[in-house]
Fold this sequence. Notes:
It catalyses: 7,8-dihydroneopterin = 6-hydroxymethyl-7,8-dihydropterin + glycolaldehyde. Pfam families: FolB. Belongs to the DHNA family. Its EC number is 4.1.2.25. The chain is of the alpha+beta class. The protein has a single domain, classed as 2-Layer Sandwich (GTP Cyclohydrolase I, domain 2), CATH 3.30.1130. It contains 2 helices and 4 strands. It has helices at about 55-65, 75-90, and strands spanning about 5-15, 30-40, 90-100, 110-120. A 4-stranded antiparallel beta sheet has the order 1-2-3-4. Helix 1 (about 55-65) packs antiparallel against helix 2 (about 75-90). The radius of gyration is 16 Å and the shape is elongated.
Amino acid sequence: MQNRRIFFSRLAVDSRIGILDHERGTTQPLHVDAELDVAVKPPSGHDDIHDVLDYRRLREAIIDECSRAHVNLLETLVDRLAARLLRDFADVQRVRLRIGKPMAFADCAAVGIETTIERSA
C-alpha cells in the first residue's frame, strides 16, 4: 500500500497549558509540528479534493484539540492529540507530533515533547 505524508511545520496555536500559577487562566503559544502518513486511495483521475484527505480538516482538529480546555502537561496534550488524529481520520496510519512551548525558558527557543504512534494492524 502506498502512503503519502502530510505535514505541518510550526503551526502556531494559543493554548491554555501549564502547571505554574502564571500559566493558569491565560493562553500561551505552542508550536505544533505534525507528520501524518496517510493511506493513498486509487486516484479517480478527477483532481478532486474528495479523493484525498483534506489537510484543512487535520489543521482544524489540531487547533481544536490544543485550544479546547486547560491541560496541565504537554505529555497529556500530545497523547490526546495523537489519539484524536488516529480516531477521527481513518486514512491516517501513523502520526508523529512535536509540540513545543517557545515561552517556557528565556535561554532556549522552545522546550517540548515528541511522540510517534501507529494505527494497530
